[in-house]
Design brief:
Elements: E1 2-7, H1 16-27, E2 34-39, H2 48-62, E3 68-71, H3 78-88, E4 91-95, H4 100-106, H5 109-114, H6 118-123, H7 128-142, E5 146-149, H8 152-159, E6 168-170, H9 184-191, E7 196-201, H10 210-220, E8 227-232, H11 238-247, E9 254-258, H12 262-271, E10 274-277, H13 286-293, E11 298-301, H14 306-309, E12 317-319, H15 324-336, H16 338-351, H17 357-368
Parallel strand pairs: 1-2, 1-3, 3-4, 4-5, 5-6, 7-8, 7-10, 8-9, 10-11, 11-12
């Protein structure tokens, strides 16, 4: 079997899709599957008007030797890869880890102002460009032979795109224990961190809830004057977040690392007393799995696929999105109650063992070989 992985990002790029694609490229050949990878990075230097057509031409050539075209998103690589697969009469399989149209909408002015939930977005008629993006991802998903999603929650969303439920396969992401040999104390020394440390990781976009976390810091400083929030990542909302930290007078307690390499992301996690993810949406968070594997107590929101990874009060704490009072209480409890924090970390490390590479690759191969 020969498979072409069409992906928007690939190592050394960072992020879940890049990690997933690299893992498949490394693991599938061990099962007798020949893998080639076509990253959108190969055309990103071109003018926007021709990038997708150029990628389509590359996909057309690359699919000649493939039995299956496996696209890692339904829009940027999904549409050109689908067109190439249909022309070359190849099998087409799609992975969907989120709603691209919703994400783009939320990064625009109206998305910040009105902030539709993902569920509301499926039922709401939006501007022309957003509706076009919706139709593209629906079209690609409906014409895929199989659609792989990383959570049962996302399966319910994709079913609303008109994809038959039996075509949607839930395969949870894999997580191996991140390689951090240094102790927590040594990592803190290297990173220049001390005090009570909260770490949050992600793209700096509205639905990730970083504004709420910054306001939580202000709320907790009286009780924990050495509190530090480390925000790992970059994105379009960085200026807004930095300005808000200054307005609240907490800029000395909020560190923006910018984009970080995977090894440094793991180090920041290892240095944390709490990993907090105040997100309005999460398909299935790889960052949560990595925090679980590193034994960091987790506080996140009861949205999307988070509840499929976190058992509230057992492997982490679930709160409502942007409930700053609940976030502050949960963080304070972990800071003050070491036994509770250790229990969460221990249970999480046990649970994350189920999210193995072998399981994920094996389930993926079953879909490929149908």
């Amino acid at each position: 079997m020969r498979i072409l992985i069409a992906t928007g990002v690939f190592a050394p790029d960072i992020g879940g899709p890049a990690t997933y694609s690299k893992l498949l490229a490394d693991e599938l050949p061990r099962y007798g599957i020949d893998v080639s990878v076509l990253s959108f990075r190969s055309v990103r230097h071109l003018p926007k008007a021709i990038r997708h057509f150029a990628y389509f031409l590359k996909a057309l050539r690359a699919s000649v030797r493939a039995d299956i075209v496996f696209a890692q998103d339904p829009v940027s690589v999904g549409l050109p890869a689908l067109c190439a697969a249909k022309i070359m009469r190849k099998r087409f399989i799609l992975k969907v880890v989120g709603d691209y149209a919703w994400e783009q909408y939320c990064q625009r002015g109206e998305g910040v102002k009105d902030f539709l939930t993902l569920e509301e977005f499926q039922r709401t008629r939006c501007d022309f460009v957003t509706e076009l993006r919706k139709k593209v991802q629906w079209f690609v998903a409906q014409h895929a032979e199989q659609v792989i999603v990383p959570s049962a929650y996302l399966k319910t969303i994709i079913a609303q795109w008109g994809v038959p439920s039996e075509k949607i396969q839930v395969i949870y992401n894999a997580c191996e224990t991140p390689a951090v040999s240094e102790s927590k104390e040594d990592v803190r020394r290297v990173l220049g961190l001390q005090g009570n440390i909260i770490v949050s990781i992600g793209r700096l976009v509205p639905w990730k809830g970083f504004l709420g976390l910054i306001e939580v810091v202000q709320k907790m400083l009286t009780e924990f004057p050495d509190l530090v929030l480390v925000i790992v990542g970059d994105g379009p909302q960085r200026f807004v977040l930095e300005k808000r930290a200054q307005e609240l007078g907490v800029d000395e307690h909020v560190i923006f690392t910018g984009r970080a390499e995977r090894e440094n992301v793991w180090r920041y996690l290892k240095a944390a007393d709490v990993f907090a993810l105040n997100t309005a949406y999460e398909g299935f968070s790889h960052q949560i799995l990595e925090a679980m594997a590193l034994g960091v107590p987790i506080i996140t929101t009861a949205v999307g696929g988070n509840g499929e990874a976190i058992n509230n009060g057992e492997t982490g704490v679930l709160v409502a999105y942007n409930d700053k009072e609940a976030l502050a209480q949960a963080i304070s409890r972990i800071f003050k109650n070491k036994a509770f924090a250790d229990m969460l970390a221990h249970n999480a490390k046990k649970k994350v063992e189920a999210f193995s590479t072998e399981r994920m690759v094996g389930e993926t191969i079953k879909v490929l070989r149908v």
